[in-house]
Write a structure and sequence with these properties.
- This protein is α/β, with parallel strands linked by helices.
- The protein has one domain: TIM Barrel (Alpha-Beta Barrel).
- The protein has 13 helices and 8 strands.
- Helix 9 links the parallel strand 5 and strand 6.
- Helix 1 packs across helix 2, helix 1 runs parallel beside helix 13 and helix 9 runs parallel beside helix 10.
- The protein is globular and about 45 Å long.
- The two termini are 19 Å apart.
Length: 281
């Protein structure tokens, strides 16, 4: 990692998606993030049906000064797989119709099927490496497992085996609740956790303190609280800047994720992160 890297990472869940940025627009966002000092890129095998990883491969190539973090465990249902060839058509419809955009967002929010067996996870890692065109991912995570999945140990073991084989670096888990985070901190193979850190939510405070004590990296996501929280603020841009600075300055957070599909929002996030970093120096 470059010493000039900012303490924020780019969440790439909507890059390449029907309702997100695609093609040249998505590539421009990724290139701008890279140019602005962002060196952590968060993706998943299911983001944009794999196109998020493919877009990252076009901008990052084989660079060794970045951290690419992908995830596995979720997969597309047969119904969603049949729609993949129609993404271009669906994107055009969604951009012309607010109702269609809402429909896509509603479908996206529904729970996805999961698999946690080692064979599936190993195949998912190999597929992600292929789409990213990388020989190794610096970090790889289980994608929102239940606490019991982590406690059983087989899924974490599959990632640990991939690390031993040189396919991935840091083994991590993207968690949705405190119970899963607690299970992660009991497994010494887990060296990073990604947690939802909503404004005003203190549910993870004890977890973050314990992770810091154990040397487990904490990656904060969903820090702005979603579109409703941002649009409900009297000054959305100031709200976002202050929240980004607040999380960056927390000693129990290793890195803060920001996700956007607009260059202007990325520029504002980078400025907020840089200001917070300089004020703490």
């Amino acid at each position: 990692m470059s010493t000039d890297a900012l303490p924020i990472g780019l969440g790439c869940s909507r890059l390449g998606s029907v309702n997100g940025a695609s093609g040249p627009e998505a590539l421009a966002i990724l290139q701008a993030a890279l140019d602005d000092g962002i060196r952590f890129f968060d993706t998943s095998n299911i983001y944009a049906q794999g196109d998020s990883e493919r877009l990252l491969s076009q901008v990052l190539g084989g660079r060794d000064d970045v951290i690419v973090c992908s995830k596995a465990g979720k997969f597309l249902s047969w119904k969603k797989r049949t729609l993949v060839p129609l993404k271009g058509l669906l994107r055009g419809v969604a951009r012309r119709s607010g109702q269609a955009r809402k429909g896509v967002a509603s479908a996206r929010a529904k729970p996805m099927p999961t698999r946690w067996d080692p064979a599936f996870l190993t195949a998912s890692i190999d597929a992600s490496l292929g789409r990213l065109k990388r020989e190794r991912m610096e970090m790889f995570m289980l994608h929102s497992p239940d606490a019991e999945v982590v406690r059983r140990g087989e899924a974490v073991g599959a990632l640990a085996a991939a690390a031993q084989a040189g396919k991935i670096g840091i083994v991590g888990v993207s968690v949705d609740d405190v119970a899963c985070a607690e299970a992660c901190l009991q497994d010494p193979r887990v060296r990073a956790i990604q947690v939802p850190l909503h404004p005003g939510d203190t549910a993870f405070d004890a977890i973050l303190a314990e992770a810091r004590g154990k040397g487990v990296a904490v990656i904060a996501r969903e820090i702005l609280g979603g579109p409703a929280a941002i649009s409900g603020a009297s000054d959305p841009r100031t709200y976002a800047a202050e929240r980004i600075a607040e999380v960056i300055l927390r000693p129990d957070v290793t890195l803060t994720l920001v996700g956007t599909t607009r260059l202007a929002n990325l520029t504002a996030s980078v400025a907020a992160a840089r200001a917070a970093t300089e004020s703490s120096a």
